[in-house]
Amino acid sequence: MMQNVHLAPETDEDDLYSGYNDYNPTYDTEELENDTAFQQAVRTSHGRRPPITAKIPSTAVTRPVATGYGSKTSLASSMGRPMTGTLQDGVARPMTAVRAAGFTKAALRGSAFDPLGQSRGPAPPLEAKNEDSPEEKIRQLEKKVNELVEESCVANGCGDLKLALEKAKDAGRKERVLVRQREQVTTPENINLDLTYSVLFNLASQYSANEMYAEALNTYQVIVKNKMFSNAGRLKVNMGNIYLKQRNYSKAIKFYRMALDQIPSVHKEMRIKILQNIGVTFIKTGQYSDAINSFEHIMSMAPNLKAGFNLILSYFAVGDQEKMKKAFQKLIAVPLEIDEDDKYISPNDDPHTNLVIEAIKNDHLRQMERERKAMAEKYIMTAAKLIAPVIETSFAVGYDWCVEVVKASQYVELANDLEINKAITYLRQKDFNQAVETLKMFEKKDSRVKSAAATNLSFLYYLENEFAQASSYADLAVNSDRYNPSALTNKGNTVFANGDYEKAAEFYKEALRNDSSCTEALYNIGLTYKKLNRLDEALDCFLKLHAILRNSAQVLYQIAHVYELMEDPNQAIEWLMQLISVVPTDSRALSKLGELYDSEGDKSQAFQYYYESYRYFPSNIEVIEWLGAYYIDTQFCEKAIQYFERASLIQPTQVKWQLMVASCFRRSGNYQKALDTYKDIHRKFPENVECLRFLVRLCTDIGLKEVQEYATKLKRLEKMKEIREQRIKSGRDGSGGSRSKREGSAGSDSGQNCSASSKGERLGARLRALPGTNEPYESSSNKEIGKCWHSPPSSYRQNRSEEDW
Question: Where is the composition biased (Polar residues) (predicted)?
Fold first, then answer.
């Protein structure tokens, strides 16, 4: 026994795991591929062993073991029994048990083991399609028709109606070719009716979308009259819609009723929609009793918001007060079928629940629920504003009834909005005291309603120029709801009115941060920057506003004015041209264009726009003055007379216009008319020195006897004028010392008098430009004629339901 015991050497004392990697090389299977004897034994029968005979006689035979190459080795069992399948007495026992795995009798004859049939070689190539066959051509053509129909629908969805119609027509042409080819190859029963139906229906829809109603109706008639199309009668609804667009209401009702007769009662929703169309058509024709029958049937079967609102309109048209009340109650009772807002509030701190709520808080379903609720509120508010003035003796009592009904329904929050609308109605009736009293009732309400009411009160007081009250209520609105952009805008307006432009700009900026779509705040901040002479920032604000309100005349004018202040007249003219394309009859914009062209030296263009301005508003003194001066400059004094006569009618106390009329007569050579005009002026203004000078001159030239009389009056007036001037001069010399003492206190008022003094200087310059005795009247091309218009800040009246029905 000890010969098999191996003692570890002393040097290996520390290696406890030595010897574990040692193994018998007989078991090294990795080197079998390089073992020549083994590979030879596998490939040939060299390694076949003779069968082992059993020591004990047995009836069992040995079992041959087949290798992967077909060789078999008969092995005996452990008891010496021959295995199944061996040759015994020259007869092979059948191997039925392994035949399904690919072992057959051929293996006994030395054939290779090939259960997958790989020895047969690759599969023959697929038979090539015969693209010239009629069936293949029909199949390809049908595929092309389907593609064209799909492309037509996609183009319609993208808004390209013309392309959609072209695709639909192409699909129709190819479908007719397809039908002819099918008739030649197969029997008519094999024609694809679904494809024909879809092609015709799409073509009719595209005709209707392109407002080609006659072609659409013809195509629908082809579908409806074909008995092979099942349920084609429903398309009569579409035909009725086309007749409704054409305002052929009798035919529309006829086709709606035909469609209603062909739709079974199980399709309840479809029948309700057709009935609603019938009711709307009856309203358009003025047959309100028939419309009431349709909507009453709908409200009894499947009530909805649109049918309820239309029923109220119908009762309002016939003036049935009691029925209006009942219809309003039915409208209020229509179920919204949406989830409550509490569903979107997490009941606990479960992170999984919070994630789910966050995911569904603003998904498409939630957006649809919001839209449906907003639509319901709009219908209810509009119906209440419509019926409140007529269902009771006064609109206030009617509003109170509507408020009570709304408070008892699921729309409780709309009651406060109805009260605010009541105040707005008082405003429209010019009853400001009642409006203020109604709005003051909301001071003890919740923050949202209080903020809305205070915003409206601030708006009212701002319009009445009571800026202290407006500021007080604006503060109340802001404190109630700091995120209310309209309240912040009104607060900015009150600060703007007090001249604190920097602070006003801060309020407008905060309003924009809370609501980037608040156009009033954006407009007002542009005006504020213009006041602060920050023209680049003002221009940026107005350009942003122009991107939102493309055709706003006020915004276009402000952009043009900013460019004018930046001394860029070309840009100013370009924006004013856009302005008059929006409001072509705005006389102020036309006169501003004339002024800009005049400053650029383009007299002809200036005359064109000044004349257009005069046509639309013939009472603008600046325009009249410029046109009269233009005709005098161009030596057409006769044409200038009519403008100065109009100016004298507008300002009868201003003698200069009548002097200009007389001067035009004198320049044109009509001295008698000029003399009569000067005499008339002298009767009205006997102390006018200029008139007397012209009278003396004309009478001298003509040789009239009255010259001495007018000369005497002229000398007396001139002497009185000299005495008056001497008194004024002596008074100034005497008050020189006291004036110097008051200079310090007067300096504080200089800012307030700046605009008045500049205006006086301009007026004096114009008066000095009037003709004297020896000089003709000459117009000055560079003098200021018009004044720029500055719009005040936009006030904001908060009223969610301000839309008129």
Answer: 749-758
d(CA 289, CA 317): 10
Q: Residues 450, 443: contact at Cβ < 8 Å?
A: yes
List Cβ neighbours of 600 (8 Å cut-off, separation of 6 or more): 569
pLDDT in tens, 601-623: 999 999 999 999 999 999 889 99
What span, in angstroms and rounded, lies between the C-alpha atoms of 660 and 680?
13
Q: What's the N-to-C CA distance of the chain in angstroms?
A: 116
CA 266 – CA 200 distance, rounded (Å): 27
The residue with tokens 């199944």 is 84
Which single residue is written with the structure tokens 């509009």?
382
Between CA 447 and CA 442 the distance in angstroms is 9
Q: Give the Å distances, CA to CA, from 464 to 131, 421, 489.
A: 86, 20, 17
Closest CA to 380 of 332, 441, 431, 419: 332
Task: Give mean pLDDT, residues 762-785.
Answer: 33
Q: Is the pLDDT of residue 48 over 70?
A: no
- Residue 185 DSSP symbol: H
Structure tokens at 717: 């007036």
Q: Residue 605 and residue 571: Cα distance in Å, rounded?
A: 16
How far is residue 521's CA from residue 501's CA, in Å, rounded to a whole number?
13
Cβ contact 493:459 at 8 Å: no
State which amino acid sits at residue 572: A
- Beta pairing class for 87-88 and 91-92: antiparallel
Classify the phi-psi angles of 345: left when phi > 0, otherwise alpha if psi is within -120 to 50, otherwise beta.
beta
CA–CA distance, 233 with 150 (Å, rounded to integer): 24
Torsion sign (Cα): 494, 497, 499, 501: positive
Contact 585, 616 (CB under 8 A): yes
Answer whether 423's CB lies under 8 Å from 456's CB: yes
pLDDT tens column, 568-598: 999 999 999 999 999 999 999 999 999 999 9
Point out the least confidently predicted range of 96-100, 289-293, 712-716, 759-763.
Answer: 759-763
Cα distances from 638 to residues 193, 651, 674, in angstroms, run 84, 21, 12
User: Quick one: DSSP state of residue 52?
Assistant: P
Q: Give per-residue pLDDT as tens, 647-685.
A: 888 888 888 888 888 888 888 888 888 888 888 888 888
Q: Give the CA angle between residues 21, 22, 28 to the nearest 5°.
A: 95
To which H or E segment does residue 72 belong? strand 72-75
Whether residue 73 is predicted with pLDDT greater than 50 in this model: the reply is no
> How large is the C-alpha radius of gyration of the chain?
51
By C-alpha distance, which of 768, 765, 678, 688 is closest to 720?
Answer: 688
Residue 469 to residue 463: CA distance in whole angstroms: 11
Strand partners, 92: 87
**492, 512 contact by CB (below 8 A):** no
Q: Which amino acid is at 114?
A: D
Q: How far apart are CA 430 and CA 623, in angstroms?
A: 36
pLDDT number for residue 744: 39
Over residues 698-711, the mean pLDDT reads 79
| Long-range pairs of 535-538 with CB within 8 A, sequence gap ≥ 24 | 535/562, 535/565, 535/566, 538/562
Contact 81, 54 (CB under 8 A): yes
Q: Which one is predicted more confidently, 669 or 120?
A: 669
Q: How does pLDDT run across 457-482, given as a tens digit for each residue? A: 888 888 888 888 888 888 888 888 88
The pLDDT tens digits of the residues spanning 480-536 come to 888 889 889 999 999 999 999 999 999 999 999 998 889 999 999 999 999 999 999
